[in-house]
């Protein structure tokens, strides 16, 4: 995915350490959001959201609707500024190749985003569905599950495991470590002793 | 920014009625006499811009113009040294000085302006210091206060133009032309277009 050159989002940037926008950028983004909020509900409905993403990204319709359903936490058919801000941060992280850093810094919100049905579990299908968001490739997913799916049900548990999982995602996917070390680390941090 | 000449409201004995500019420049000169170690004193810039062949002044001017060129696109960012924002043109400087004096008047006891130069007290030295530090950190105060509250106009233009494009495309794709939301969107877009054309009209004229 590439942001449209010359668009407003293209001029924004994330803080490279915390992967968040500065206060000034948030202020500008808020003005932008208010301009798009035609009906003055402090929200964007699905039509406006679709046309916004269609204008600034190269995503297809299905991808845009997947993102909308992911962000529409309350199933109201519209998204507020909090979700909009989260989306913009994800877009900018992808644009600037900061996906790894972004997931590392915001592992809990990312986990909750991927956990669509709220079961505190995310499976391979979640990753497949959202790989266009974080640039996670299929082969890397396969390797991850091969290393960590100890229960064999193709899902991961949350809480301490989520933190370790996130670390391992960074390490495995982005090539900074070897699977053996990851497994050892995982076992050492498994406080629930269920695996 | 106000361009009116500075008038010492507390009856400075040294005021020269025939030339208010000289008063201001004298004040600048006197104010920095007690501050020999300032890196880039404004009086130095002012005096050197009048004097011919001062190498420091010319170097400073060159330095300022270089900085101005480099930072021309950085309207959002605050600069470390407030003096970087000051140009060396006499007209700009005069207006700037009047604003500086207004700020100074607001924060320092007025009796300092009445004292003779030769009888500077410690209070005046410290007040000069505080004035200089304040003026260094808060030049163009009104401008920066506005910047804190509003977005710069060029950025607003980019944002509005893009929002207009997106909303126009959304309108074309609406299936229900008689639906109240579609009509609401249409009215909103027309309002945005009117606002944009007014702004362009103002810019052109």
What does this 3D model show about the protein?
The complex is a heterodimer of chains A (195) and B (205). Chain A is 59% helix and 4% strand. Chain A has 195 residues and is mostly helical. Chain A has a two-stranded antiparallel sheet with strand order 1-2. Chain A has a two-stranded antiparallel ribbon with strand order 3-4. In chain A, helix 6 (99-105) packs antiparallel against helix 11 (160-173), helix 10 (138-148) crosses helix 11 and helix 11 packs antiparallel against helix 12 (179-189). In chain A, 30% of the residues are buried. Chain B is mainly alpha-helical. Helix content of chain B is 62%, strand content 0%. Chain B is built from eight helices and no strands. In chain B, helix 1 packs across helix 2, helix 2 packs across helix 3 and helix 7 (153-173) runs antiparallel to helix 8. The longest helix of chain B has 25 residues, at 180-204. Chain B is elongated. The chains are: A mainly alpha (195), B mainly alpha (205). The A-B interface holds A 7-8, 11, 24, 27-28, 31-32, 35-36, 38-39, 47-48, 51-52, 54-55 and B 76, 151, 155-156, 158-160, 162-163, 165-167, 169-170, 173-174, 181, 184-185, 188, 192.
């Amino acid at each position: 995915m590439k942001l449209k050159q010359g668009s407003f989002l293209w001029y924004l940037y994330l803080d490279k350490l915390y992967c968040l926008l500065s206060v000034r950028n948030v202020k500008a983004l808020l003005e932008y959001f208010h301009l798009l909020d035609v009906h003055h509900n402090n929200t964007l409905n699905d039509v406006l959201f679709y046309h916004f993403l269609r204008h600034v990204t190269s995503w297809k319709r299905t991808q845009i609707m997947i993102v909308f359903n992911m962000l529409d936490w309350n199933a109201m058919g519209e998204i507020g500024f909090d979700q909009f801000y989260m989306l913009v941060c994800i877009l900018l992280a992808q644009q600037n190749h900061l996906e790894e850093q972004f997931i590392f810094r915001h592992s809990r919100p990312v986990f909750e985003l991927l956990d669509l049905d709220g079961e505190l579990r995310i499976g391979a299908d979640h990753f497949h569905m959202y790989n266009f968001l974080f640039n996670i490739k299929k082969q890397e997913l396969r390797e991850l599950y091969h290393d960590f799916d100890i229960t064999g049900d193709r899902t991961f548990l949350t809480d301490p495991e989520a933190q370790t999982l996130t670390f391992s995602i960074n390490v495995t996917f982005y090539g900074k470590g070897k699977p053996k070390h990851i497994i050892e680390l995982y076992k050492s941090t498994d406080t629930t002793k269920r695996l | 920014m106000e361009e009116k000449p500075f008038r010492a409201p507390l009856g400075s004995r040294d005021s020269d009625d025939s030339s208010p500019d000289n008063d201001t420049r004298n004040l600048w000169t006197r104010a920095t006499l007690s501050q020999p170690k300032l890196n880039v004193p404004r009086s130095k810039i002012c005096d050197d811009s009048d004097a011919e062949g001062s190498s420091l002044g010319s170097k400073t001017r060159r330095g300022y113009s270089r900085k101005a060129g480099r930072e021309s696109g950085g309207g959002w960012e605050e600069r470390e040294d407030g003096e970087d924002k000051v140009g060396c043109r006499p007209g700009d400087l005069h207006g700037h000085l009047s604003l500086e004096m207004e700020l100074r008047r607001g924060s320092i006891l007025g009796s300092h302006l009445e004292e003779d130069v030769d009888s500077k007290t410690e209070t005046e030295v410290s007040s000069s210091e505080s004035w200089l530090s304040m003026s260094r950190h808060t030049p163009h105060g009104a401008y920066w206060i506005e910047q804190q509250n509003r977005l710069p106009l060029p950025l607003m233009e980019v944002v509005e133009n893009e929002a207009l494009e997106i909303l126009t495309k959304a309108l074309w794709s609406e299936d229900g032309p008689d639906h109240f939301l579609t009509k609401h969107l249409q009215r909103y877009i027309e309002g945005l277009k009117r606002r944009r054309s007014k702004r362009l009209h103002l810019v052109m004229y």
